[in-house]
Amino acid sequence: MIRDSFALLGEYTGMAWQSIIAHKMRSILTTLGILIGVTTIITIWTTIQGLNTYIGSVLSDIGNSVVYVEKYPWVIKGDFWKYRNRKNIGWREYEAIRRHSRLARAVTPQVVASRVAAYDDKKLERVAVLGTTETFTETGSVTPESGRFFTGADIRNKARLTVLGAQLAEELFKKSNPLGKRIRIGDLKYKVIGVLERQGDFFGQSRDNFAIVPIGTFRNVYGQQRGLQIAVLAATSAELEDLKEELRGILRQTRKVPAAEEDDFAINQMDQLTGFYEDATATLYAIIFIIAAISLLVGGIGITNIMMVSVTERTREIGLRKAVGAKKNNILSQFLMEAIALSSIGGVAGILIGLLAGSLILSLLKVTGGVDLSAIFVGFGFSAFVGVVSGFYPAYKAATMNPIDSLRYE
Amino acid sequence: MLIDIRALSKKYLLGAVEVLALNEISLSIERNEYVAIMGPSGSGKSTLMNIIGCLDVPTAGSYTLNGQAVASLSDDELATIRNKEIGFVFQTFNLLPRADALHNVELPLIYKGVPKAERRIIARETLEKVGLGDRMDHKPNELSGGQRQRVAIARALVNNPSIILADEPTGNLDSTTGEEIMKLFADLNAAGNTIIVVTHEEEIARKSKRIIRLRDGRIVSDEAVEHEAAV
Predict the structure, then answer these.
(1) For A410, nearest residue in chain B (alpha carbons)
(2) Mutate to test the interface with A, among B14, B55, B116 (most CBs of A within 10 A)
(3) Is the CB of residue B107 less than 8 Å from the CB of residue B65?
(4) Is residue B103 included in any domain, yes or no?
(5) A4-61: per-residue pLDDT in tens?
(6) CATH number of the domain that B152 lies in?
(7) pLDDT one-digit tens code per residue, A78-95
(8) Radius of gyration over every alpha carbon of chain A, rounded to an integer in angstroms
(9) What confidence score (pLDDT) does residue B231 get?
(10) Is B220 helix (H, G, I), strand (E, B) or coil?
C-alpha cells in the first residue's frame, strides 16, 4: 500500500498542479495566509541566525577568558544612580590586583579619551585614544601587523610613542609607511612604532579607528583621576570563576567595602553580553512563534475551506476514480497532495521573500556574512505540515465517499 | 460461468422505510454474452447494475464474479476487483474534463500500477480500436458526444476487463450517434467481450442477444433476442 503511494506520487503531484492551475486566482488567494506566515518566520529566522553567527564570530575574537573590572556593569538592571555614586576604579585597584592576584596571567589597565589626530595636512576628529600597558596584546588579543607594540620600558618611561589601529593608520597615511613618523594627538606629537592587525567592523562601526599610547603618558596629559577599566586574563579559562572570586576579594579589601554591603564595582565578562543578547532573541523567537502560529492557523483554515470546495466540486470525479479502481488511500493521497502543493506554493514564495527581507535587514544593520540556508528547511517543513494538517479532513471526506452516490452527484 | 448470482436481495433504508430493491434474484451470465437489463424506473435495474459492477454489495444471497465471491469484500478489495474485472460506461460519460482523451483512457491503468510508458502504449492502442486514433490529445470539451462516449468505452476496455458494464450508454446521444455506439458494442462483443447494457429503451435492448426484464425487484423475463441475418 505504502509502496503503491510512492509509485503514484508523481501522478498525485501532476493532478494537484492541474487542479491548482485550473483555479489560479483561488489558489493564490488561498495560499496567501501561508505566504505571510512563512515570510514572517523566514525573515526573523534569517535575521537572528545572521546576527548569531556574526555576533558569535566577533565575540570569539574578543576572547572569553578575560574579565573587566569597571565601575558600571555592562547590562544595567534597575537604578542607574546607584552605580553613578560609586567611586571610580583607579590606579590603586590596578596595583592591588597586579600584586595580589595569583590566578591572573595578565592585568591591563585601560583608559580612553576622544581627541583629534593629525598627520601632515590630514586631520581626523574624535579618534579614540587608549592609554594602556604592554600586556594589552594579551588581554585585548591584538598583534602588530607592522612595527612593534610597547615594551615594559616604553611604559615605565612614559614615552611619547603610539601604536595605531589599522583604520586610523590607513586614513592618516594612505599608502605611505607610518612607522617612525610623528603624528599629533590632541596637542602633542607621538612617534608611530607599530600598526595593529585589522579587527573588522561591528555593526558598521570600525574597531580599528584608535591610537594607543602608554598609560603613564596618557595620565600625565589627561589627568590622574580618570576612571580605569582593568582587563584581567585568566591563566586558564577553567579558572575564570575562581579568578572572579579572587578579584572580588582583592577589590573589596582595597576599596574597604563593609562585609554587609554589596560590591561597589562590577566584574564584567562577555557572557553578560551574550546572556543579554540571548534574552533579547528569546523574546523575538516567542514573537515569531506567535505571529507564525496565528497566520499559519488562519492560512491552514483557508486551505481546509478551499479543499472542501474542491472535493465537493469534484464529487463525480471521485466517484469515477473509485469506479475504475481507486482505493481509499489513492483518493486520500491525491487530495492531501493537492493541499500540500497549495501550501507549499505559499511556503516557497514565503521562503524567497523572507530570505530577501532577512538579507536586507542584515545589510541595513551592516552585518556581514552569509544568509543561513537552514531557513529553507524550516519554511518547507512548516508549509508541508500545514498542508497535511489542513488537507486531511477534506481528503478523508473524499476518500470515504460512496462511489454510487458520487457518480450520480449533480 | 462469468457471473453467478443466487437468491440475491438488496434492502435499502429510505428514511424510516425499508425498500426491497432486489428480491431473491438468481441469474447467470456466460463469457462473451451480450445482455440487456431492462425495466422501468424503480424496478431495481440500477441496483442490480451496481452490484454486478461491484460498486455495492448485496444484503443477502451470493454473487460470484469470474470465480470470486464478491458479496463480502471490503471497499478496497471491491476497488481492486472493479479495476481488474469491470469496465464502466456511463450515460453522462464521466470523463475528467481537464485531461485529454489519452489521459482519460489511462486512468484505470494508473490505479493498476502500470508504468507510464507502457500505459501510454496501451491507451493509444485502445483509442485506435474505438476509432479515435486522431483525437488522442483532445480534451472532452473539444469532442462530440459520440466521441466522448468512445473515449469512455476505450477507458472501459483498457484494462481488458471481464465485463463491459454500460448504464444507458446512448441516453445523452442523438439517435444516429446512439446507433454508432451500439454498433461499436456489437463489434466489441463479436471480438469476444462480454457486454451488459442497462437501458429502458426497447430499441437499444434489441441490439443485444439476451434481454433480462426486471419489475419490482424480480426478474419477469429472460429471453434470447431473435436477430435477422446480420449485415
Answers:
(1) B92
(2) B55
(3) no
(4) no
(5) 556 688 888 888 888 888 889 999 999 998 998 899 888 888 888 888 888 777 766 6
(6) 3.40.50.300
(7) 777 888 888 899 999 999
(8) 33
(9) 46
(10) strand
CA distance B122 to A157: 99
* Residue spans of beta strands (DSSP E) within A174-290: 182-185, 188-196, 201-202, 205-206, 210-214, 229-234, 266-269
What's the Cα-to-Cα distance from A231 to each of A215, A266, A299, B182, rounded to whole Å?
Answer: 14, 12, 54, 100
pLDDT tens across A127-174, in order? 999 999 999 998 888 889 999 999 999 999 999 999 999 999 999 998
The number of distinct structural domains making up chain B is 1
Following DSSP, what letter does each residue of A300-350 receive, concatenated?
HHHHHHHHHHHHHHTHHHHHHHHHTT--HHHHHHHHHHHHHHHHHHHHHHH
pLDDT, mean of residues A182-188: 92
Mutate to test the interface with B, among A324, A329, A331, A408 (most CBs of B within 10 A): A324
Containing structural domain, residue B87: 3-96+148-224
The answer to whether residue B204 sits within a structural domain is yes
Q: Is residue B75 part of a domain?
A: yes
Cα atoms in the 13 Å half-sphere on the side-chain side of B98: 12
Smallest Cβ–Cβ distance between B155 and the set A8, A19, A324 belongs to: A324
pLDDT tens, position by position, A305-363: 999 999 999 999 999 999 999 999 999 999 999 999 999 999 999 999 999 998 898 88
Pairing verdict, β A144-147 and A188-196 = antiparallel
Cell of A390: 489542513
Q: How many angstroms separate the CA atoms of B231 and B228, rounded?
A: 9
Distance from CA of B87 to the nearest CA of A (A): 7
Q: What is the pLDDT of residues B59-82, one digit of tens each?
A: 999 999 999 999 888 999 999 999
The C-alpha cell of A249 is what? 576579594
User: Of A283, A116, A145, A121, which is closest to residue A208 (Cα–Cα)?
Assistant: A145
User: How much is the pLDDT for A46?
Assistant: 86
